[in-house]
Design goal:
alpha+beta, 60s Ribosomal Protein L30, Chain: A, 27% helix
Length: 198
């Protein structure tokens, strides 16, 4: 069994200026989306999703990562990542989750960027033109707020009722001029403040 893919859609966003000031290093956010037939649509409630997960998720992961990495010059340039699934109205949110929330899919992206971190995500149900919106986070430093980013785009004819849109995205850096620190700095500050108050 192979995924029945109708099309791939690529999205690129380059930030050169933020807050009226040129970025020291322009930041690229790139994403690739696959529009595929939902293998469970029209079959009623399917108890065991594993056969399709095992057959389809690795094929999707491998092909999508192979298409995404050249958009940023290779995995060595990636600092943040995320993923998304949108299921058409004839499917369950579980169907999209089945394809992206498996190591058989996500490990292709993790391996490409040399990460072992959790990949941030969204999964939902929607129709054609629904916003493909998902968070990105640092590939090795989960508390790095500088890399709390979001990518957003849409495919005007997808997902159809019996389709799923699967997307993965990466960023080559954090927000230009990031200056709010990270959660670990907060923890240190709060511990010190509590110690001084006692």
């Amino acid at each position: 069994m192979k995924p029945e893919i109708r099309k791939y859609v690529a999205h690129i966003e380059d930030t050169l200026i933020e807050g009226g000031r040129a970025a020291e290093h322009p930041v690229r956010i790139a994403a690739i989306a696959a529009v595929l037939k939902n293998p469970w649509a029209g079959r009623g409630f399917v108890e065991d999703l594993r056969p399709e997960i095992h057959a389809l998720a690795p094929v999707l992961g491998k092909e999508m990562v192979a298409r995404l990495m050249p958009m940023v010059g290779g995995g060595r340039n990636v600092e943040a990542f995320g993923k998304c699934a949108i299921v058409g109205t004839n499917g369950e949110i579980e169907h999209g989750s089945a394809l992206i929330h498996t190591l058989r899919f996500g490990n292709f992206l993790r391996d490409a960027v040399n990460s072992t971190e959790f990949i941030s995500f969204t999964n939902k149900r929607g129709g054609p033109g629904n916003s493909i919106t998902f968070p990105l986070k640092h590939i090795t430093q989960p508390g790095a707020r500088s890399h709390f980013l979001t990518t957003e785009f849409a495919i005007m004819d997808a997902p159809a009722a019996d389709e799923i849109v699967i997307a993965i995205g990466v960023a080559t850096g954090g927000r230009p001029h990031a200056r709010i620190g990270d959660r670990f700095i907060d923890m240190e500050d709060m511990a010190r403040e509590a110690s001084e108050a006692s």
